[in-house]
Amino acid sequence: VWGPGAGDFDLARLRMVARLVDAPPLTPAMMEFLTRMGEYTLTPLPLMLRMATRAPDLDQPPSARRIIHRAGDPPARMTDARAAVLRVIDDHGGAGFAPGELAQMAGVSAGVVQGLVKAGTLAETLAPRDAPYPRLDPDLPGKPLAPDQAAAADSLRAAMRGAGYGTTLLRGVTGSGKTEVYLEAVAECLRQGRQALVLLPEIALSAEFLQRVEARFGARPGEWHSGITRTERRRLWTMAAQNHVGMIVGARSALFLPFADLGLIVVDEEHDSSYKQEDGVYYNARDMAVLRASIGGAQVVLASATPSVESWVNAATGKYRRLDLRARYGSAELPEMATIDLRQQEMEKGRWISPRLAAEIEARRARGEQSLLFLNRRGYAPVTTCRACGQQIGCDHCDARMVEHRFQNRLVCHQCGETKPIPETCPGCGTEGKMTPVGPGVERLAEEVAARFPDARASVLSSDLFHSARALKEAIAEIGAGETDIIIGTQLVAKGHNFPRLTLVGVIDADLGLQGADLRAAERSFQLMRQVAGRAGREGGEARGLALLQTYQPDHPVIRAILSGQDEEFWDAEAAGRQAAGMPPFGRLAGIVLSHPDQPVVEDYARALARDTAPLQAIGGELWGPAPAPIARIRARYRVRMLIRAPRQAPVQGAISQWLRGAPKMPTNLRLAVDIDPMSFL
To answer: What region holds the Helicase ATP-binding domain (predicted)?
Structure first.
């Protein structure tokens, strides 16, 4: 039941009530949030409601169930299978599991779990399906704060004590201690008996973060992401609705949990593109967090060392408050930044680590310190080409080249996931032994590291090399413990990880991402390189961190801005350029993506749709396109894009709805997606 009807229901359609569903009802604020978000994103309400009820068995009555939990010391006879079971429990903070669920997550038989029960290491009890979470104590002493941290924390506490909604941009250089500051806002929220939500851009960040929360509040918060169990998913949903969990840490989907009294939302690394969902319901969790807080009278903290231009402008115009942390915590200094001009380097064929960078790596190894080599390109090589005829191996279902993944011994399409074996002969000309990888990915870089530094311990951090959140967390923990000398990683390494022994960062290709027509290309490149460089020298000590950017364009404005440290000037210049062009946040954009298995069908319909744009013109909008999408075919569907630009205050959603209502009838199997405030234009 959503609300009162219009009184025109046909009573003849009434049916007897089969049973009552004893699930907590959604609050009026939550219902308003789902309604308004649906209106903003042009998403039907049933789809919005589905996003808010993503927990299993909500229609089942609460009951007791058998739960396995830790009870004693490890057994005298420890096997790999037994160790896997204990590792799963420890990784989830000692949470209880159903016996079959625990065995499945550990990849062992049920007999292994029962053996640990008989040994007394685990115990089996009957427990309520939905049990409250341990209380977090906001009055435990926190980590000592530096003066600027203390001032920022006081400001956030004062905002929490005030009445109503507000958003604060917490901008601090990498390593400045933003987390400790916003945890003080969480503490104030808990003192008021309200609930707090912290959104993180990457599941792998949650392990270290949960430890910091436990150290601050004496207990673990709830955790919501794709890696949690079905049992925990239902429990967390129910406890959030009943105000029996004070703090939840989660991915973007945690925004749709039915909090009974949500008082604070923190969006950590608010600039991160992973907060934007680009399938199903298109939305930006950062912006929707602000919407939800404004409806429920909550505070929002947007935390980042490299804020988005949108948040920067909102702070500059007074829509958001802004707090700055300008120095690293303790004795740590910001890393020294320098370029390596590849035009002046004598690079060996098939090598991507310059002599200068190699020498710095050796110096770090001699001192027992770690180095990070960053290349934002997954796999072994981005292109596989035939040296006889020049043909490049493409995906059969997409207009995209397949990427060699040598660790898997496969070619992989990064658009649809299709894989195929690496061919011995060219599929075009049939020549044998001429298929050659072109360009480097992180796997090829790892091969070079193994050849140049044979005694070094190297680890590759790339999302496609880890098939579970647990495996990724274990790899990050090993690096943090100093069990790796050289880290080779994609953008995964830029997302807030803290490696105490890391003092050198080498960006292998700083030019990657600088070019292109994307209006955010410069912003993203700046953010990514600044974040990666910020991994170096975070713990202080005698050695200051060093970040080296290998580039053929040392005079590029983005490279110069990174070296100069004039971040504010960069954001101001980006904002001025957007304003002059009428681009976000000074104008509105909406993307229209059409797709169909038959290319003429989708192209003909797109042209027909574009013929009458009167509703768009009425609000001062203009339609660009239609045109083939940059990736014109994905999963055997041909794609056409259109882009709508309109003034900042224009009612874009209403105009698009009116325009589409008057559109020709859609052909069978044609799909049309509307992306309000698009981040990607592929």
So the answer is: 159-325
